[in-house]
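EI: anyone free to look at a 397-residue chain?
SC: sure, send it
EI:
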Amino acid sequence: MTNDSIPAPRASDRFTFGLWTVGNIGRDPFGDPTRAPIDPCRIVERLAAIGAWGVNLHDNDLVPFGASASERDRIVAGFKRALADHRLCVPMATTNLFSHAIFKDGAFTSNDPSVRAFALRKSMDAIDLGAELGASTYVFWGGREGTEADACRDPREAIKRMRGALDYLCGYVQDRGYALRFALEAKPNEPRADIYMPTTGHMLAFIQTLAHPEMVGVNPEVAHETMVGLNFVHGVAQAMEQKKLFHIDLNGQRIGRYDQDLRFGSEDLRQAFLLVRLLEGTAGDRHGAAYTGPLHFDAHAYRSEDEEGVWDFARGCMRNYLLLKQRAQNFDADPEVRELLADVPDPLGMAAQMNRYCTASAKALRAAPIDLDAIARRGLRYERLDQLMIEHILGAR
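SC: here you go
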């Protein structure tokens, strides 16, 4: 395999970045910014030049908090012209419900009704903006929906408040006739000590309690579940199996660290490979269709970089995904891999008996002459399978 065999990113790859990702100015809790802000219209121009498909945004990434109506309209009009000029789209939008001090104890889950009301109002305004820009997915990350002093509220009340807010906003979207779906983003901690509904599994269970569960899915992020040691690929698979993977945030992360938002594919190549393989469906579609939504890189360049380094970072995210996609295709087309992944022989016809319970199937299962000792002695060759995967990741096959 040569470098030339990896195609350049194109619109059909569905790669997106947020204004807040490539626009990150290099500030961290211990240091001031290391690069100047980049105008949103310039971000659109540069993303289009390197092959991205779309750009996503929080409301205040584009329109400063507190801007007048006329100022808001002027900024949005200029941004829409840039999108048209450079043929970029806005697939996803979201609301910043975490930066302003009013949200210090949550937005939708705050004990203060005035805070909850403001969060709804801000969300409705931001939903209007997203719809105006053509977004089809609206993400909710509850960055302040949690606690440090856990006795401050009954967590059951927080869940009820979150449900009420989402039901309200689903009603708003329906009333306005917007073609929008909501995607909920889980995170275990940071910036709160504990955040409510911390994993994708929590969110999937919560969605079933909403008034309009058909409108709501999930937006898992690599870093959020990896930072606490969970298997991100398994969480994404659960969302896909339930047809609830509405959006996904791709980045890199080391276990046990703060939310690093590193370049996709720069950490844990094994998990990145398996994630791309899952999303692309290279192993075939017998377990369900491949993911066809936006591939959003929610990450940012190292603090060491100037603006040119930002675009190196963005190109690296896309190139790493395409490299891993090609590796996954090669892995699943490898005859030895296909042999190792072939269905286990079923001479007793047990699979058919387990499809659905009935009295006859239960009787057949009980009577089946299963040779426990012979099965227990049989090697599964997972060592060989895993080594083949590593060789494909490294480009040795």
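EI: The chain is about 45% helix and 10% strand.
SC: 👍
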